Amino acid sequence: MSILKEFKTFAVKGNVVDMAVGIIIGAAFGKVVSSFVGDVLTPALGMLIGGVDFTDLVITLKAAQGDIPAVVIAYGQFIQTIIDFIIIAFAIFMGIKAVNRLKREDNVTEEAPAEPPAPSNEEVLLSEIRDLLKQQNKN
Questions:
Q1: Per-residue pLDDT reduced to its tens digit, 117-126
Q2: How far is Cα 107 from Cα 87, in angstroms, rounded to an integer?
Q3: What's the pTM?
């Protein structure tokens, strides 16, 4: 089998296509969550905590010299990234919790599964024959 045929077989398998769709939707969902956090939650939380912004906190290791920029440890940016991660994780947790609640409500409204159908006449007759044979073997 040629390499091109093998690649075609691999590329059109359902799992690969499903994975590609999942990655694309995941990237789009990541943009939605980032926008929600950056444009909705972060400003509101910033207002609640007095407009604290950690991104400007740095430790300067070497001052700027002419065209050479300063060498800094941007620990404030790291702290801000951790806070953003916590906010995003909490927002995703709450979203998943809401989706799970909706799923549970959908499952409650579904009807209980129907009882299995009664055995057919043939099955009843075969069961009776089996029971009679067992009784004869005991005697």
A1: 888 888 888 8
A2: 30
A3: 0.49
